[in-house]
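dude i think i finally got it to work??
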Amino acid sequence: MDTLKDDAYYMRKALEQAQLAFDADEVPVGSIIVQHDEIIARGYNQVELLKDATAHAEIIALTTAFAALGSKYLPEATLYVTLEPCLMCAGALYWSKIGRIVYGASDEKNGYSRYLPQQYPFHPKTILTQGVLADEAAFLMKAFFKGKR
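look at this
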């Protein structure tokens, strides 16, 4: 299989989740979790809807995946998320022992790399891929915040 094709395919699925957030007037971040070529969880930001500062796309997808698998660890799974995870989500991903993280756009303001520029915040066995469909993810974010100004 062509990993780049697979990554782009699954990132498009995460972008569909981000569009749901956008349509709900939430910051448009979406995520999915894939294991053995099957989407086992989906999530999008629901901070405003749930009145919960922790209701990020990654956290919602992680909670769904844990429940679906009956496990607190995801070493064989891949998270696809449209935006670089924040520190909170990086911590949750660390503890999940997720096998792989793929994200789209960088987040210079709130992403983990702003606060941990020289450190790897994920589990040592977690593989990280950055920049998949980054332009599409960034466009959605820019459109959302342009509408807020």
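The longest strand covers residues 38-44.
im so relieved honestly
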